[in-house]
Design brief:
Blueprint (H helix, E strand, L loop, with lengths): L1 H20 L2 H10 L4 H34 L6 H44 L5 H48 L3 H6 L1 H31 L3
Helix pairs in contact: 1-2, 3-4, 3-7, 4-5, 5-7
């Protein structure tokens, strides 16, 4: 029973090593031996990006709830309130990093797929087939561009919200008193609005990902 698990661990290690080393040719060839082409990898990574956005959205929703609670803070253990907010911030930050890394991966695979697709089109001798493939490439690129733009907008807004979130966490760390929290009530309301807008944008990114996935062949 241990042998297959060891083989799987080794395989995962090789994929990670190849990916980190930048040896994209070997990376793709390794996947091809397992029956996955670049279009399959793009689909897999867009799906993963969608799932990571879903997870990040939930983390930010939890943070939004915490901010609302602090905005209405009327007594209690200040240090507990601070620690809870700090935990929410760190969870959001971790999820955001996963989203950033996945977007980078999607970008890399999409660029390589489209380059390969264009190069293969130029090898097609039949004019009708070449024209049909070109149309499909343009359509796929256009839909990917729409998805990519939405993902980048969500990513940018996520970074902006995290910066404001961090400011509040650090301020509370340095001022653990009821007066400080009371003075932040208006700031919390403003951050709440930013977080809600981010959640809406992340949902738009999730929807776009589903739409793009539906255009890719199984």
């Amino acid at each position: 029973m241990k042998k297959p698990q060891s083989f799987f661990s080794l395989l995962v290690f090789c994929f990670v090593a190849l990916s980190l080393s930048g040896c994209s040719t070997m990376y793709y060839k390794t996947w091809e031996t397992l029956g996955k082409e670049k279009r399959d990898l793009l689909r897999d990574n867009v799906e993963a990006a969608r799932d990571e956005n879903v997870e990040a959205k939930e983390e930010f929703k939890d943070a939004l709830t915490r901010l609302k609670e602090l905005g209405n803070f009327d007594g209690g253990k200040l240090e507990v309130a601070y620690n809870n907010l700090k935990d929410d911030y760190e969870n959001c930050q971790e999820s955001a990093e996963d989203v950033h890394d996945r977007i980078d991966k999607v970008e890399s695979i999409a660029d390589d797929l489209f380059d390969e697709w264009q190069a293969e089109i130029e090898l097609i001798g039949n004019a009708n087939m070449r024209r049909d493939s070109s149309k499909k490439l343009k359509l796929t690129k256009r839909k990917y561009k729409s998805l990519h733009q939405t993902m980048l907008e969500s990513e940018k807004q996520m970074d902006s919200v995290l910066l404001r979130f961090r400011d509040n966490v650090l301020f509370l760390k340095h001022n653990l008193n009821a007066q400080a929290i009371g003075g932040l009530a208006a700031e919390f309301k403003s951050v709440e609005g930013d977080v809600q807008r981010l959640i809406d944008r992340m949902q738009a990114s999730i929807t776009k990902a589903d739409e793009f996935i539906a255009t890719l062949p199984e």
